[in-house]
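Translate sequence into C-alpha coordinates.
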Amino acid sequence: MAYVAPVRDYQFLFENVFKTDQYSNLKGFADADSATVAAILEEAAKFAEEVLHPINITGDKEGCTLDPVTHEVTAPKGYKEAYKALTEAGWTALSGDPQYGGQGLPHFVNTAFSEMLSGASSAFGMYPGLTEGAISALTAGGTQAQKDLYLPKLISGEWSGTMNLTEPHCGTDLGLLRTKAVPAGDGSYKITGQKIWISAGEHDFTSNICHLVLARLEGAPAGVKGISLFLVPKFIPDADGNPGERNSLQCAGLEHKMGIHGNSTCVMMYDEAKGFLLGSENEGLKIMFYMMNNARFGVGLQGLAIGHAALVAANQFAKDRLQGRALTGPKSPELPADSILVHPDVRRMLLESRALIEGGRAFLTWVSLQADLAHVSEDESMREKASDYMGLLTPVIKAYLTDKGLKVTQDAMQVHGGSGFTEHFPASQYMRDVRITLIYEGTNGVQALDLVGRKLPSKGGRALQTFLGEIDAYIAAEESDTKVPAYIKALKDTKAKLLDGTMWLMQNGMGNPDAAAAGSLDYLHLFGLTCTAYMWARMAKEAQAQIDAGATDPFFDTKLKVGRVFLERILPDAEAHLIKMKAGSEGLMALADDQF
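Result follows.
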Protein backbone atom coordinates (compact mmCIF):
# COMPACT_ATOMS: atom_id res chain seq x y z
CA MET A 1 0.00 0.00 0.00
CA ALA A 2 1.44 3.35 -1.03
CA TYR A 3 1.74 6.33 1.29
CA VAL A 4 0.08 9.53 0.01
CA ALA A 5 1.23 12.80 1.60
CA PRO A 6 -1.50 15.34 2.54
CA VAL A 7 -0.26 18.08 0.22
CA ARG A 8 -3.65 19.45 -0.80
CA ASP A 9 -4.85 19.63 2.79
CA TYR A 10 -1.84 21.67 3.88
CA GLN A 11 -2.23 24.01 0.91
CA PHE A 12 -5.81 24.66 1.99
CA LEU A 13 -4.79 25.28 5.60
CA PHE A 14 -1.95 27.64 4.71
CA GLU A 15 -3.60 29.59 1.91
CA ASN A 16 -7.29 29.62 2.83
CA VAL A 17 -7.80 28.89 6.52
CA PHE A 18 -4.84 30.57 8.22
CA LYS A 19 -3.83 32.84 5.32
CA THR A 20 -0.16 32.70 6.22
CA ASP A 21 0.73 35.25 3.54
CA GLN A 22 -0.70 37.92 5.86
CA TYR A 23 2.41 37.56 8.01
CA SER A 24 4.85 38.32 5.19
CA ASN A 25 6.26 41.29 7.13
CA LEU A 26 7.55 38.98 9.89
CA LYS A 27 11.00 37.42 10.04
CA GLY A 28 11.11 34.21 8.03
CA PHE A 29 7.62 34.59 6.57
CA ALA A 30 8.79 36.65 3.60
CA ASP A 31 10.50 33.51 2.26
CA ALA A 32 7.39 31.41 2.89
CA ASP A 33 4.91 32.87 0.41
CA SER A 34 2.21 30.58 -0.96
CA ALA A 35 4.03 29.73 -4.18
CA THR A 36 7.27 28.84 -2.38
CA VAL A 37 5.52 26.77 0.26
CA ALA A 38 3.49 24.94 -2.40
CA ALA A 39 6.74 23.95 -4.12
CA ILE A 40 8.22 22.82 -0.78
CA LEU A 41 5.15 20.69 -0.06
CA GLU A 42 5.39 18.98 -3.43
CA GLU A 43 9.07 18.16 -2.94
CA ALA A 44 8.46 17.03 0.64
CA ALA A 45 5.73 14.68 -0.56
CA LYS A 46 8.01 13.25 -3.23
CA PHE A 47 10.75 12.62 -0.67
CA ALA A 48 8.33 11.01 1.81
CA GLU A 49 6.59 8.83 -0.76
CA GLU A 50 9.57 7.78 -2.86
CA VAL A 51 12.53 7.73 -0.46
CA LEU A 52 11.16 7.08 3.03
CA HIS A 53 8.04 4.98 2.65
CA PRO A 54 9.85 2.13 0.84
CA ILE A 55 12.10 1.60 3.88
CA ASN A 56 9.23 1.65 6.38
CA ILE A 57 8.18 -2.01 6.13
CA THR A 58 11.71 -3.34 5.62
CA GLY A 59 12.92 -1.30 8.59
CA ASP A 60 10.17 -2.78 10.73
CA LYS A 61 11.06 -6.35 9.77
CA GLU A 62 14.84 -5.93 10.05
CA GLY A 63 15.14 -3.64 13.06
CA CYS A 64 18.41 -2.38 14.51
CA THR A 65 21.44 -4.52 15.32
CA LEU A 66 23.85 -4.09 18.24
CA ASP A 67 27.41 -5.38 18.02
CA PRO A 68 28.08 -6.81 21.51
CA VAL A 69 31.81 -6.22 21.18
CA THR A 70 32.02 -2.70 19.79
CA HIS A 71 28.63 -1.58 21.15
CA GLU A 72 27.95 0.04 17.78
CA VAL A 73 24.40 -0.03 16.37
CA THR A 74 23.56 -0.59 12.73
CA ALA A 75 20.23 0.79 11.56
CA PRO A 76 18.07 -1.17 9.08
CA LYS A 77 19.05 -1.39 5.44
CA GLY A 78 18.38 1.86 3.59
CA TYR A 79 18.23 4.09 6.66
CA LYS A 80 21.77 5.42 6.30
CA GLU A 81 21.22 6.24 2.63
CA ALA A 82 17.84 7.86 3.36
CA TYR A 83 19.38 9.99 6.12
CA LYS A 84 22.11 11.12 3.75
CA ALA A 85 19.48 12.10 1.19
CA LEU A 86 17.57 13.93 3.94
CA THR A 87 20.53 16.06 4.95
CA GLU A 88 21.88 16.66 1.45
CA ALA A 89 18.49 18.03 0.41
CA GLY A 90 18.57 20.40 3.41
CA TRP A 91 15.39 19.11 5.04
CA THR A 92 16.86 19.08 8.56
CA ALA A 93 17.73 22.78 8.23
CA LEU A 94 14.28 23.84 7.03
CA SER A 95 13.34 25.97 10.05
CA GLY A 96 16.81 26.19 11.61
CA ASP A 97 18.31 29.51 12.68
CA PRO A 98 20.09 31.11 9.68
CA GLN A 99 22.83 32.28 12.06
CA TYR A 100 23.87 28.63 12.32
CA GLY A 101 23.22 27.53 8.75
CA GLY A 102 19.46 27.00 8.88
CA GLN A 103 17.00 28.15 6.23
CA GLY A 104 14.93 30.12 8.74
CA LEU A 105 11.53 29.13 7.38
CA PRO A 106 8.56 29.33 9.77
CA HIS A 107 7.76 26.43 12.04
CA PHE A 108 4.42 25.76 10.34
CA VAL A 109 6.28 24.76 7.14
CA ASN A 110 8.48 22.36 9.08
CA THR A 111 5.37 20.91 10.75
CA ALA A 112 3.96 19.91 7.37
CA PHE A 113 7.23 18.25 6.38
CA SER A 114 7.51 16.54 9.75
CA GLU A 115 4.07 14.99 9.39
CA MET A 116 5.04 13.59 6.00
CA LEU A 117 8.32 12.32 7.45
CA SER A 118 6.60 10.53 10.35
CA GLY A 119 3.74 9.27 8.21
CA ALA A 120 6.04 7.74 5.63
CA SER A 121 8.28 6.12 8.27
CA SER A 122 7.71 7.04 11.91
CA ALA A 123 10.73 5.09 13.18
CA PHE A 124 13.04 6.89 10.76
CA GLY A 125 11.46 10.27 11.49
CA MET A 126 12.42 9.97 15.15
CA TYR A 127 16.14 10.37 14.40
CA PRO A 128 15.95 13.97 13.08
CA GLY A 129 13.03 14.63 15.45
CA LEU A 130 15.19 14.01 18.54
CA THR A 131 17.85 16.30 17.09
CA GLU A 132 15.29 19.11 16.78
CA GLY A 133 14.64 18.79 20.49
CA ALA A 134 18.36 18.93 21.29
CA ILE A 135 18.63 22.08 19.18
CA SER A 136 15.82 23.74 21.16
CA ALA A 137 17.48 22.95 24.51
CA LEU A 138 20.92 24.04 23.34
CA THR A 139 19.46 27.26 21.95
CA ALA A 140 17.77 27.96 25.28
CA GLY A 141 20.58 27.02 27.65
CA GLY A 142 23.89 26.82 25.81
CA THR A 143 26.71 29.34 25.98
CA GLN A 144 27.55 31.22 22.82
CA ALA A 145 30.63 29.02 22.36
CA GLN A 146 28.51 25.88 22.71
CA LYS A 147 25.98 27.18 20.21
CA ASP A 148 28.70 28.13 17.72
CA LEU A 149 30.26 24.67 17.96
CA TYR A 150 27.22 22.39 18.05
CA LEU A 151 24.26 24.13 16.40
CA PRO A 152 25.60 24.28 12.82
CA LYS A 153 26.33 20.55 12.85
CA LEU A 154 23.03 19.62 14.48
CA ILE A 155 20.98 21.83 12.16
CA SER A 156 22.72 20.44 9.08
CA GLY A 157 22.19 16.89 10.34
CA GLU A 158 25.92 16.15 10.30
CA TRP A 159 25.54 15.39 14.02
CA SER A 160 22.44 14.16 15.82
CA GLY A 161 21.02 14.64 19.31
CA THR A 162 19.16 12.70 22.00
CA MET A 163 17.50 13.33 25.35
CA ASN A 164 18.45 11.18 28.37
CA LEU A 165 15.95 11.35 31.23
CA THR A 166 14.64 7.94 32.25
CA GLU A 167 16.49 5.52 34.52
CA PRO A 168 15.54 1.95 35.48
CA HIS A 169 14.01 3.05 38.80
CA CYS A 170 12.75 6.44 37.67
CA GLY A 171 10.35 7.34 34.87
CA THR A 172 8.04 10.32 35.21
CA ASP A 173 9.31 11.13 38.72
CA LEU A 174 12.65 12.63 37.69
CA GLY A 175 13.36 13.71 41.24
CA LEU A 176 14.46 10.12 41.88
CA LEU A 177 17.24 10.05 39.29
CA ARG A 178 20.68 8.88 40.40
CA THR A 179 23.00 9.67 37.49
CA LYS A 180 25.73 11.80 39.01
CA ALA A 181 27.98 14.57 37.77
CA VAL A 182 31.35 15.41 39.33
CA PRO A 183 33.38 18.52 38.39
CA ALA A 184 36.50 17.48 36.48
CA GLY A 185 38.45 20.61 37.37
CA ASP A 186 38.75 21.84 33.78
CA GLY A 187 35.25 23.24 33.38
CA SER A 188 33.81 19.92 32.31
CA TYR A 189 32.08 17.24 34.40
CA LYS A 190 32.37 13.48 34.78
CA ILE A 191 28.97 11.89 34.15
CA THR A 192 28.26 8.42 35.56
CA GLY A 193 25.00 6.49 35.41
CA GLN A 194 22.55 4.46 33.37
CA LYS A 195 19.75 5.77 31.17
CA ILE A 196 17.09 3.63 29.50
CA TRP A 197 14.67 3.97 26.58
CA ILE A 198 16.94 6.44 24.81
CA SER A 199 15.54 6.83 21.30
CA ALA A 200 18.22 7.18 18.60
CA GLY A 201 20.86 6.71 21.31
CA GLU A 202 23.26 4.94 18.95
CA HIS A 203 23.25 4.53 15.16
CA ASP A 204 25.54 4.54 12.16
CA PHE A 205 24.64 7.57 10.07
CA THR A 206 26.06 10.64 11.80
CA SER A 207 29.68 11.27 12.73
CA ASN A 208 28.73 12.31 16.26
CA ILE A 209 25.78 11.92 18.64
CA CYS A 210 25.19 14.63 21.23
CA HIS A 211 23.43 13.30 24.32
CA LEU A 212 21.60 15.73 26.59
CA VAL A 213 21.76 14.05 29.99
CA LEU A 214 20.04 14.92 33.25
CA ALA A 215 22.31 14.29 36.25
CA ARG A 216 22.75 15.34 39.85
CA LEU A 217 25.76 17.12 41.34
CA GLU A 218 27.00 15.98 44.74
CA GLY A 219 25.33 18.06 47.43
CA ALA A 220 22.58 19.25 45.12
CA PRO A 221 19.10 19.76 46.60
CA ALA A 222 16.89 16.68 46.71
CA GLY A 223 14.18 16.15 44.10
CA VAL A 224 13.82 18.00 40.82
CA LYS A 225 15.37 21.18 42.26
CA GLY A 226 18.78 19.48 42.26
CA ILE A 227 18.90 18.35 38.61
CA SER A 228 21.41 19.74 36.11
CA LEU A 229 21.62 19.23 32.35
CA PHE A 230 24.79 18.19 30.53
CA LEU A 231 25.78 17.89 26.90
CA VAL A 232 27.70 14.61 26.56
CA PRO A 233 28.98 13.95 23.03
CA LYS A 234 29.87 10.47 21.78
CA PHE A 235 33.09 11.96 20.43
CA ILE A 236 34.62 14.95 22.20
CA PRO A 237 35.16 17.74 19.65
CA ASP A 238 38.81 18.59 19.00
CA ALA A 239 40.32 22.05 18.63
CA ASP A 240 38.90 22.32 15.11
CA GLY A 241 35.41 21.29 16.18
CA ASN A 242 35.62 17.85 14.60
CA PRO A 243 34.87 14.54 16.36
CA GLY A 244 37.94 13.68 18.40
CA GLU A 245 38.49 11.38 21.38
CA ARG A 246 35.86 8.68 21.97
CA ASN A 247 33.94 9.49 25.14
CA SER A 248 33.42 6.88 27.87
CA LEU A 249 29.80 6.11 27.08
CA GLN A 250 28.21 3.26 25.19
CA CYS A 251 25.00 1.54 24.20
CA ALA A 252 24.74 -1.48 26.50
CA GLY A 253 21.60 -2.91 24.95
CA LEU A 254 18.68 -2.45 22.59
CA GLU A 255 15.09 -2.75 23.74
CA HIS A 256 12.93 -5.40 22.05
CA LYS A 257 9.79 -3.42 21.37
CA MET A 258 6.23 -3.77 20.17
CA GLY A 259 6.85 -1.32 17.31
CA ILE A 260 9.07 1.44 15.89
CA HIS A 261 11.65 -1.29 15.26
CA GLY A 262 13.65 0.88 12.89
CA ASN A 263 14.56 3.28 15.69
CA SER A 264 17.30 2.28 18.11
CA THR A 265 15.88 2.42 21.64
CA CYS A 266 19.00 2.14 23.76
CA VAL A 267 20.23 1.44 27.25
CA MET A 268 23.01 4.01 27.64
CA MET A 269 25.88 3.64 30.12
CA TYR A 270 28.00 6.60 31.18
CA ASP A 271 31.28 5.87 32.99
CA GLU A 272 32.83 9.20 33.98
CA ALA A 273 31.99 10.47 30.52
CA LYS A 274 33.04 14.04 29.77
CA GLY A 275 30.05 16.34 29.85
CA PHE A 276 29.49 20.07 29.57
CA LEU A 277 26.97 21.95 31.69
CA LEU A 278 24.08 23.65 29.90
CA GLY A 279 22.85 26.68 31.77
CA SER A 280 23.37 26.90 35.51
CA GLU A 281 23.77 24.13 38.06
CA ASN A 282 20.49 22.73 39.38
CA GLU A 283 18.47 24.33 36.58
CA GLY A 284 18.59 21.38 34.23
CA LEU A 285 14.92 20.57 34.23
CA LYS A 286 14.04 24.14 33.28
CA ILE A 287 16.20 23.87 30.15
CA MET A 288 15.18 20.29 29.42
CA PHE A 289 11.56 21.42 29.30
CA TYR A 290 12.33 23.24 26.05
CA MET A 291 13.32 19.88 24.61
CA MET A 292 10.47 18.02 26.29
CA ASN A 293 7.82 20.45 25.03
CA ASN A 294 9.30 20.21 21.54
CA ALA A 295 9.14 16.42 21.85
CA ARG A 296 5.56 16.44 23.16
CA PHE A 297 4.43 18.49 20.18
CA GLY A 298 6.36 16.08 17.95
CA VAL A 299 4.71 13.04 19.52
CA GLY A 300 1.25 14.52 18.95
CA LEU A 301 2.30 15.06 15.35
CA GLN A 302 3.59 11.49 15.16
CA GLY A 303 0.28 10.08 16.38
CA LEU A 304 -1.61 12.08 13.76
CA ALA A 305 0.89 11.17 11.03
CA ILE A 306 0.65 7.42 11.63
CA GLY A 307 -3.14 7.74 11.77
CA HIS A 308 -3.11 9.45 8.38
CA ALA A 309 -0.88 6.74 6.90
CA ALA A 310 -3.14 4.01 8.30
CA LEU A 311 -6.20 5.77 6.89
CA VAL A 312 -4.61 6.00 3.44
CA ALA A 313 -3.98 2.24 3.52
CA ALA A 314 -7.53 1.52 4.74
CA ASN A 315 -9.05 3.68 1.99
CA GLN A 316 -7.06 1.84 -0.65
CA PHE A 317 -7.98 -1.54 0.82
CA ALA A 318 -11.69 -0.68 1.03
CA LYS A 319 -11.80 0.31 -2.64
CA ASP A 320 -10.06 -2.87 -3.76
CA ARG A 321 -11.64 -5.44 -1.44
CA LEU A 322 -14.73 -7.09 -3.00
CA GLN A 323 -17.10 -8.62 -0.48
CA GLY A 324 -20.88 -8.75 -0.30
CA ARG A 325 -23.40 -6.47 -1.94
CA ALA A 326 -24.76 -3.08 -0.98
CA LEU A 327 -27.96 -3.38 1.07
CA THR A 328 -29.76 -1.19 -1.45
CA GLY A 329 -28.75 -3.37 -4.40
CA PRO A 330 -25.54 -4.14 -6.33
CA LYS A 331 -23.34 -1.13 -7.05
CA SER A 332 -21.00 -3.04 -9.38
CA PRO A 333 -23.20 -5.71 -11.01
CA GLU A 334 -20.48 -6.53 -13.52
CA LEU A 335 -18.29 -7.76 -10.66
CA PRO A 336 -18.81 -10.82 -8.43
CA ALA A 337 -19.23 -8.53 -5.40
CA ASP A 338 -19.20 -4.86 -4.47
CA SER A 339 -16.25 -3.25 -2.75
CA ILE A 340 -16.61 -3.05 1.02
CA LEU A 341 -16.78 0.72 0.60
CA VAL A 342 -20.55 0.34 0.02
CA HIS A 343 -21.17 -0.82 3.59
CA PRO A 344 -22.26 1.95 6.01
CA ASP A 345 -20.12 0.71 8.90
CA VAL A 346 -16.98 0.69 6.74
CA ARG A 347 -17.81 4.20 5.58
CA ARG A 348 -18.39 5.21 9.21
CA MET A 349 -14.90 4.13 10.21
CA LEU A 350 -13.25 5.76 7.22
CA LEU A 351 -15.14 9.04 7.46
CA GLU A 352 -14.88 9.40 11.23
CA SER A 353 -11.15 8.78 10.84
CA ARG A 354 -10.87 11.39 8.13
CA ALA A 355 -12.78 13.94 10.20
CA LEU A 356 -10.44 13.34 13.14
CA ILE A 357 -7.28 13.51 11.04
CA GLU A 358 -8.23 16.63 9.08
CA GLY A 359 -9.46 18.43 12.19
CA GLY A 360 -6.36 17.35 14.11
CA ARG A 361 -4.08 18.50 11.30
CA ALA A 362 -5.67 21.96 11.37
CA PHE A 363 -5.25 22.08 15.16
CA LEU A 364 -1.60 21.06 14.83
CA THR A 365 -0.98 23.68 12.15
CA TRP A 366 -2.67 26.42 14.16
CA VAL A 367 -0.55 25.66 17.23
CA SER A 368 2.65 25.55 15.15
CA LEU A 369 1.71 28.98 13.79
CA GLN A 370 1.44 30.18 17.40
CA ALA A 371 5.03 28.98 17.91
CA ASP A 372 6.11 31.18 15.02
CA LEU A 373 4.21 34.22 16.31
CA ALA A 374 5.62 33.72 19.81
CA HIS A 375 9.13 34.04 18.37
CA VAL A 376 8.89 36.62 15.60
CA SER A 377 5.80 38.78 16.05
CA GLU A 378 6.61 42.45 16.45
CA ASP A 379 3.54 42.91 18.67
CA GLU A 380 4.37 42.20 22.30
CA SER A 381 0.77 41.29 23.15
CA MET A 382 0.68 38.87 20.21
CA ARG A 383 3.91 37.22 21.38
CA GLU A 384 2.52 36.90 24.89
CA LYS A 385 -0.75 35.41 23.66
CA ALA A 386 0.98 32.94 21.35
CA SER A 387 3.40 31.89 24.08
CA ASP A 388 0.50 31.37 26.48
CA TYR A 389 -1.26 29.21 23.91
CA MET A 390 1.83 27.07 23.40
CA GLY A 391 2.03 26.38 27.12
CA LEU A 392 -1.67 25.69 27.49
CA LEU A 393 -2.15 23.55 24.39
CA THR A 394 1.00 21.41 24.27
CA PRO A 395 -0.42 18.72 26.60
CA VAL A 396 -3.66 18.76 24.59
CA ILE A 397 -1.76 18.33 21.32
CA LYS A 398 0.25 15.44 22.75
CA ALA A 399 -2.56 13.51 24.42
CA TYR A 400 -5.59 14.27 22.27
CA LEU A 401 -3.89 13.72 18.91
CA THR A 402 -2.16 10.50 19.95
CA ASP A 403 -5.38 9.09 21.39
CA LYS A 404 -7.21 9.90 18.17
CA GLY A 405 -4.27 8.62 16.12
CA LEU A 406 -4.66 5.29 17.92
CA LYS A 407 -8.41 5.24 17.25
CA VAL A 408 -7.91 5.95 13.56
CA THR A 409 -5.24 3.28 13.30
CA GLN A 410 -7.42 0.79 15.15
CA ASP A 411 -10.32 1.47 12.80
CA ALA A 412 -7.98 1.15 9.82
CA MET A 413 -7.09 -2.35 11.02
CA GLN A 414 -10.79 -3.14 11.43
CA VAL A 415 -11.45 -2.05 7.84
CA HIS A 416 -8.76 -4.50 6.74
CA GLY A 417 -10.53 -7.27 8.62
CA GLY A 418 -8.50 -10.46 9.03
CA SER A 419 -5.98 -9.15 6.50
CA GLY A 420 -5.09 -6.35 8.88
CA PHE A 421 -4.09 -8.82 11.58
CA THR A 422 -1.47 -10.34 9.30
CA GLU A 423 1.91 -8.95 8.35
CA HIS A 424 0.99 -9.01 4.64
CA PHE A 425 -0.69 -5.63 5.02
CA PRO A 426 0.62 -2.47 6.74
CA ALA A 427 -2.23 -2.10 9.25
CA SER A 428 -0.51 -4.22 11.89
CA GLN A 429 2.74 -2.23 11.71
CA TYR A 430 0.88 1.06 11.99
CA MET A 431 -0.98 -0.33 15.01
CA ARG A 432 2.26 -1.40 16.69
CA ASP A 433 4.05 1.85 15.85
CA VAL A 434 1.33 4.25 17.00
CA ARG A 435 0.78 2.64 20.41
CA ILE A 436 3.94 4.11 21.97
CA THR A 437 2.81 7.67 21.24
CA LEU A 438 0.30 7.53 24.10
CA ILE A 439 3.11 6.56 26.49
CA TYR A 440 6.39 8.33 25.86
CA GLU A 441 7.24 11.96 26.62
CA GLY A 442 4.81 11.71 29.52
CA THR A 443 1.81 9.38 29.36
CA ASN A 444 -1.48 10.90 28.31
CA GLY A 445 -2.68 10.72 31.91
CA VAL A 446 0.36 12.77 32.94
CA GLN A 447 -0.43 15.29 30.20
CA ALA A 448 -3.95 15.64 31.60
CA LEU A 449 -2.58 16.26 35.10
CA ASP A 450 -0.20 18.85 33.65
CA LEU A 451 -3.08 20.61 31.90
CA VAL A 452 -5.35 20.70 34.95
CA GLY A 453 -2.76 21.11 37.68
CA ARG A 454 -0.23 23.47 36.06
CA LYS A 455 -1.39 24.96 32.78
CA LEU A 456 -4.92 26.08 33.70
CA PRO A 457 -3.94 28.05 36.84
CA SER A 458 -0.70 29.42 35.36
CA LYS A 459 -0.51 33.22 35.46
CA GLY A 460 -3.93 33.43 37.05
CA GLY A 461 -5.57 31.46 34.26
CA ARG A 462 -4.60 34.06 31.65
CA ALA A 463 -4.05 31.60 28.79
CA LEU A 464 -7.42 29.88 29.26
CA GLN A 465 -9.27 33.16 29.55
CA THR A 466 -7.63 34.43 26.35
CA PHE A 467 -8.42 31.21 24.50
CA LEU A 468 -12.08 31.20 25.56
CA GLY A 469 -12.28 34.88 24.72
CA GLU A 470 -10.97 34.24 21.22
CA ILE A 471 -13.64 31.61 20.60
CA ASP A 472 -16.37 33.89 21.97
CA ALA A 473 -15.20 36.68 19.68
CA TYR A 474 -15.16 34.34 16.68
CA ILE A 475 -18.70 33.12 17.42
CA ALA A 476 -19.95 36.69 17.90
CA ALA A 477 -18.43 37.79 14.60
CA GLU A 478 -19.79 34.85 12.62
CA GLU A 479 -23.11 34.01 14.27
CA SER A 480 -25.35 36.58 12.61
CA ASP A 481 -24.56 36.01 8.94
CA THR A 482 -22.59 32.78 8.75
CA LYS A 483 -22.97 30.50 5.74
CA VAL A 484 -22.14 27.47 7.91
CA PRO A 485 -24.46 27.90 10.92
CA ALA A 486 -24.26 24.28 12.06
CA TYR A 487 -20.54 24.64 12.70
CA ILE A 488 -20.91 27.87 14.66
CA LYS A 489 -23.69 26.40 16.79
CA ALA A 490 -21.62 23.28 17.45
CA LEU A 491 -18.61 25.35 18.46
CA LYS A 492 -20.75 27.49 20.77
CA ASP A 493 -22.28 24.44 22.44
CA THR A 494 -18.97 22.64 22.86
CA LYS A 495 -17.22 25.70 24.24
CA ALA A 496 -20.08 26.02 26.78
CA LYS A 497 -19.40 22.44 27.90
CA LEU A 498 -15.70 23.23 28.27
CA LEU A 499 -16.54 26.25 30.41
CA ASP A 500 -18.91 24.10 32.47
CA GLY A 501 -16.14 21.54 33.00
CA THR A 502 -13.68 24.27 33.94
CA MET A 503 -16.05 25.69 36.54
CA TRP A 504 -16.62 22.20 37.96
CA LEU A 505 -12.86 21.76 38.35
CA MET A 506 -12.57 25.10 40.12
CA GLN A 507 -15.40 24.26 42.51
CA ASN A 508 -14.48 20.63 43.20
CA GLY A 509 -10.84 20.10 42.29
CA MET A 510 -9.18 22.61 44.59
CA GLY A 511 -10.62 21.05 47.72
CA ASN A 512 -10.27 17.48 46.46
CA PRO A 513 -7.19 16.83 44.30
CA ASP A 514 -8.43 13.30 43.56
CA ALA A 515 -11.54 14.75 41.95
CA ALA A 516 -9.45 16.96 39.67
CA ALA A 517 -7.15 14.07 38.79
CA ALA A 518 -10.04 11.66 38.14
CA GLY A 519 -11.63 14.07 35.69
CA SER A 520 -8.47 15.40 34.12
CA LEU A 521 -8.27 13.13 31.06
CA ASP A 522 -11.94 13.63 30.19
CA TYR A 523 -11.39 17.37 30.61
CA LEU A 524 -8.40 17.23 28.27
CA HIS A 525 -10.48 15.45 25.64
CA LEU A 526 -13.25 18.01 26.06
CA PHE A 527 -10.60 20.67 25.48
CA GLY A 528 -9.32 18.83 22.39
CA LEU A 529 -12.83 18.56 20.97
CA THR A 530 -13.38 22.30 21.51
CA CYS A 531 -10.13 23.11 19.70
CA THR A 532 -11.04 20.81 16.84
CA ALA A 533 -14.55 22.23 16.62
CA TYR A 534 -12.96 25.67 16.29
CA MET A 535 -10.76 24.38 13.49
CA TRP A 536 -13.69 22.75 11.66
CA ALA A 537 -15.71 25.97 11.90
CA ARG A 538 -12.86 27.87 10.28
CA MET A 539 -12.30 25.21 7.60
CA ALA A 540 -16.01 24.99 6.78
CA LYS A 541 -16.26 28.77 6.44
CA GLU A 542 -13.40 28.89 3.95
CA ALA A 543 -14.57 25.84 1.98
CA GLN A 544 -18.06 27.33 1.65
CA ALA A 545 -16.58 30.69 0.63
CA GLN A 546 -14.65 29.02 -2.17
CA ILE A 547 -17.77 27.25 -3.41
CA ASP A 548 -19.78 30.48 -3.28
CA ALA A 549 -17.04 32.18 -5.30
CA GLY A 550 -17.47 29.61 -8.07
CA ALA A 551 -14.67 27.17 -7.28
CA THR A 552 -15.18 23.83 -9.06
CA ASP A 553 -12.47 21.89 -7.21
CA PRO A 554 -14.35 18.99 -5.52
CA PHE A 555 -11.95 19.34 -2.57
CA PHE A 556 -14.15 22.05 -1.01
CA ASP A 557 -17.42 20.11 -1.24
CA THR A 558 -15.65 17.05 0.13
CA LYS A 559 -14.32 19.07 3.05
CA LEU A 560 -17.85 20.11 4.05
CA LYS A 561 -19.15 16.55 3.81
CA VAL A 562 -16.33 15.27 6.02
CA GLY A 563 -16.97 18.13 8.43
CA ARG A 564 -20.61 17.06 8.72
CA VAL A 565 -19.41 13.69 9.98
CA PHE A 566 -17.36 15.47 12.64
CA LEU A 567 -20.42 17.40 13.82
CA GLU A 568 -22.77 14.44 13.83
CA ARG A 569 -20.62 11.53 14.96
CA ILE A 570 -17.60 12.86 16.90
CA LEU A 571 -18.57 16.08 18.62
CA PRO A 572 -21.36 14.43 20.68
CA ASP A 573 -18.54 12.79 22.67
CA ALA A 574 -18.11 16.16 24.41
CA GLU A 575 -21.25 15.58 26.46
CA ALA A 576 -20.05 12.14 27.55
CA HIS A 577 -16.66 13.52 28.64
CA LEU A 578 -18.37 16.23 30.68
CA ILE A 579 -20.64 13.72 32.43
CA LYS A 580 -17.73 11.40 33.23
CA MET A 581 -15.53 14.12 34.67
CA LYS A 582 -18.38 15.34 36.85
CA ALA A 583 -18.71 11.84 38.32
CA GLY A 584 -15.70 12.79 40.44
CA SER A 585 -13.35 10.41 42.18
CA GLU A 586 -15.53 8.60 44.71
CA GLY A 587 -16.24 5.61 42.50
CA LEU A 588 -12.58 5.29 41.52
CA MET A 589 -11.28 5.56 45.08
CA ALA A 590 -13.92 3.38 46.79
CA LEU A 591 -11.99 0.11 46.49
CA ALA A 592 -9.26 -0.50 49.04
CA ASP A 593 -5.83 -1.31 47.60
CA ASP A 594 -6.09 -4.95 48.70
CA GLN A 595 -9.34 -5.31 46.74
CA PHE A 596 -7.59 -4.93 43.41
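Note: The chain has a mean pLDDT of 96.
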